[in-house]
């Protein structure tokens, strides 16, 4: 791209755009990276410079960028129709996709309600759970949520969240939830680790559930790993036990698979690891292979049936979005699922998960790597100022941010969560590319933390 046009783009961005999760004062001050195209695991900026996409364009890309089959499916659908509403009408791709989703979803989930982002899928889940109890004549209006939870940025989703940095400011706007501890074994609030941390958390959770059982409509959990909080992995058996508790106390279990769904954890859905079926499940991100905004809230027949009645009964679920069940997005999602089976994506992913684990173990050699957490193809490396004390860096140092800027010099795009460096490449990444990603990340952490250490001394 010509220099003049490039400068123009940059100044227009700075003049007109407001970027998400971004301090715009810093953004406007600094050089910005403008992505123009993508191929496979790579992103290309407007200068033609190539970068490995280490975070799957915010955790959603699955089979790489510019995937022939996905491009084709969207073009083909475009020749039929780009959009037609699901309010009062049906459309072909959304019907076909619902059938395919039910085939692969945990057994027992039977109905699909579409929307367009993870946050909207969660809003729908909580509205369904709330209305479900109203229609079952029970005063169950509260939700059990977890410390460090993240379910999106709409007001309902934020109400369910547990990350102070993102959620605290809006407190007076939010509805109240009942909070329970989720495991963060590295910094366990009970001072325990591993199995014991799980046991203590579960003991506390059960205590809360028992005390509030008559008001609880549902519980919402990110299964196996709380992503946005810094890739906090849950000890084995944690969600299985939550499933048992929800069953025992008759609470709707909502599992938020927005980040974990579509292969990320090494199985199609995280629920499969512990062989559970929630009452409601939310999916988004990888559903279209990372191409178009689409989400879905899946429910059991039992939940769905509570909404059936004569029109005058007022049991209709009054919720919908203009682009609910968008045909282009559903076509991309259908092609996405087809690639999963045609290219044996899940089988090919297993050695990559193993390799990631082996290589990550080497990162402990670095003086400022405090903890490494991995769940399938999701990983977080927590950087600390003092390893033996687990002392964090002062937030204003923005060590995680420094690491991702350093990684760009090594031709890799990362995005941190505070001082946790996240690795979440497309499932299709090759072994060589994965090695390159890990080597560049290692070097970036080393360069930044050593330079910081030198400054302190
Ligand atoms: N739920 C979980 C578990 C997520 O990780 C996210 C986003 O990262 C969301 C919901 C929100 O999804 P979206 O950004 O598509 O609204």
CATH class of the largest domain: Alpha Beta
How large is the radius of gyration? 22 Å
In total, how many beta strands? 16
If you average the pLDDT, what whole number results?
96
Please tell me the CATH architecture of the largest domain by its name: 3-Layer(aba) Sandwich
Low-confidence runs (pLDDT<50, min 5 residues)? none
Biggest sheet features: 7 strands, mixed
Question: Your description of this structure?
Answer:
This protein is an alpha/beta fold and 457 residues long. It folds into two domains: 33-63 and 345-456, Aspartate Aminotransferase, domain 1; 70-342, 3-Layer(aba) Sandwich (Aspartate Aminotransferase, domain 2), CATH 3.40.640.10. 40% of the residues lie in helices and 16% in strands. The protein has 15 helices and 16 strands. The protein has helices at residues 3-16, 24-29, 56-59, 68-80, 92-104, 118-135, 155-159, 164-167, 194-212, 238-248, 301-305, 327-342, 345-362, 399-409, 431-456, and strands at residues 35-39, 42-45, 50-53, 109-115, 142-146, 178-180, 216-221, 225-226, 232-233, 252-256, 280-283, 295-300, 369-375, 378-383, 412-413, 420-423. The strands form four sheets. The protein has a seven-stranded mixed β-sheet with strand order 4-12-11-10-7-5-6, sandwiched between helices. Strands 1-2-3-15 form a four-stranded mixed β-sheet. A hairpin with a 2-residue loop joins β13 and β14. The radius of gyration is 22 Å and the shape is globular. The two termini are 44 Å apart. The model has no long low-confidence stretch (mean pLDDT 96). The site of pyridoxal-5'-phosphate (PLP) has 14 residues, from α6.
